[in-house]
Specification:
The complex is a heterodimer. Chain A is mainly alpha-helical. Chain A is built from ten helices and no strands. In chain A, helix 6 crosses helix 9, helix 7 crosses helix 9 and helix 8 packs across helix 9. Chain A is elongated and about 55 Å long. About 5% of the residues of chain A have low confidence. Classes of the chains: A mainly alpha, B mainly alpha.
């Protein structure tokens, strides 16, 4: 990060390549594929322009980047009249190698249940699972207190568990499959 | 399934295929970094200190300028330029006039007629030098001050006039009676002769009364005579030159106040210029 602050292009490329998959996955859950790529590119543009502010916000680089990405996506939604893009089948429904995963019954049930969660619940879980942020980092991205994020995460998982149970989801089998 | 297991399951379900930015996207970021003006890291404190300093400097400068303008202590050259460019600053002439007004106000407060006279003269001169527009700015206040000054000076002059007639009478006495006294005193008891010689004013009276009553009574007579009409009368009555006595007697009568207030001055007035009265008085005192 210090190198990036000093304008080291190699450091920026390294940072970009490391954060890109998670940012793209997070963006694709909210935007169409092309819009997701554009959002990630815009995020990096803003990050380069404001890297000098990073230190003073006390966040990890990933949390800081996801905070920017979240604002970019919000701007896109606003410019589109708040017409939020919801990928068919929820997260992970994109075409490509994921189709192999979609074929699995358990994963399909999980995606379906996940799509039934509220937007706030989905966002907390996405930031935790997709972006790989800690609860504290998620709290900073969302501008909430860590305790509130942990509570929200707990409620979202409880709700997801109920939905999966209603769908006759066999958790033991799924966990075996997942492992 | 506990929370951790469920999160793991979610992670597996939501796993995205490995994705990498394209070469074009990477090049774009590198270009952004290359174009960006690198700002070396700085603690915010120096910037805050600098901002605080700037704010303080602005406040001090503004406050000083306001104080300077308000107190009128702006240098004339600066005032001239400021006034010329339309800043709300008094012109040099108006500033001088205001200073003269302040001086006059101070003189009036001190109740010194000399200062008031001088200050009002300066103010009138400054007012005369102003343009009509400038005059309009100060005229109401200046006019009020000048009116106060005129009233004050009129009162002072009236008071002087009340005092001055006594002084005149004394001077008259000096011119006439003093001479008589002067003649009378050296002669002591024979002052009656001197007094009767001229037959003038109060001196003859007192001295007349003193010619018999010695210089002591004569001197006291001259002291009160210069201040009292009685002595004049007595002087007048004691003499044959009634007309002169009357005139001088009335004069001395008019100076009775001053004689009462200031026997010494009247005594010296009558005798100061003339040896007789003073010496007579002093002798009488000693007696």
């Amino acid at each position: 990060v210090d190198r990036a602050v000093r304008g080291d292009s190699d450091a920026w490329e390294e940072l970009y390549r490391r954060a890109y998959p998670k940012m793209l996955a997070y963006a694709r859950a909210r935007l169409d594929p092309e819009g997701a790529k554009d959002a990630v590119a815009e995020t990096m543009t803003r990050a380069v322009g404001s890297i000098h502010r990073y230190r003073w916000e006390g966040r990890s680089v990933d949390a800081w980047l996801f905070g920017i990405l979240r604002h970019v996506i919000t701007d896109v939604h606003r410019s589109q009249g708040r017409s939020r893009h919801v990928p068919e089948g929820g997260l992970g429904a994109a075409a490509g190698p994921l189709d192999e995963v979609v074929a699995a019954e358990e994963h399909g049930a999980v995606r379906t249940a996940f799509a039934l969660l509220s937007g706030a619940e989905r966002e907390v879980l996405e930031l935790r699972v997709v972006a790989g942020l800690s609860a504290d980092e998620v709290a900073k991205v969302l501008g909430r207190k860590p305790g509130a994020v942990r509570m929200a995460q707990s409620r979202a998982l409880a709700r997801l568990r109920e939905l999966l149970a209603d769908a006759g989801f066999d958790g033991e089998r799924a966990m075996g499959g997942a492992s | 399934v506990n929370d951790d297991d469920l999160l793991d399951l979610l992670g597996a379900t939501m796993a995205e295929p490995p994705a990498e930015p394209s070469d074009a996207e990477v090049a774009h970021v590198r270009d952004l970094v290359a174009d960006r003006v690198v700002v070396p890291f700085r603690s915010p404190w120096p910037r805050r200190a600098a901002a605080t300093g700037v704010v303080l400097a602005v406040l001090v400068t503004t406050g000083t300028a306001a104080a300077v303008v308000r107190t009128g202590s702006l240098p004339d050259s600066v005032r001239r330029v400021a006034s010329a460019v339309g800043l709300p600053v008094d012109s040099v002439g108006v500033a001088q006039t205001r200073a003269a007004m302040a001086d006059l106000e101070e003189a009036l407060a001190g109740r010194d007629d000399g200062d008031v006279r001088r200050a009002s003269a300066v103010l009138r001169a400054d007012l005369a030098d102003l343009s009509p527009a400038e005059t309009d700015q100060v005229q109401p206040e200046a006019g009020g001050l000048l009116a106060q000054a005129d009233a004050f000076l009129a009162i002072e002059e009236a008071a002087d006039d009340l005092i001055r007639p006594g002084g005149d009478a004394v001077e008259d006495d000096d011119a006439t009676g003093g001479g008589d006294g002067g003649e009378g005193t050296p002669s002591g008891g024979g002052s009656g002769d001197g007094g009767s010689d001229d037959g003038d004013v109060s001196a003859p009276g007192p001295s007349g009364s003193g010619d018999g009553g010695s210089s002591g009574s004569g001197s006291s007579g001259s002291g009160s005579g210069s201040g009292s009409s009685g002595s004049g009368d007595s002087g007048g009555s004691g003499d044959e030159d009634d007309e002169d006595d009357d005139s001088s007697g009335s004069g001395s009568g008019g100076s009775s106040d001053s004689g009462d207030e200031d026997d010494d001055s009247s005594g010296s007035g009558s005798g100061g210029s003339d040896d007789g009265a003073s010496s007579e008085g002093s002798e009488a005192d000693e007696d």
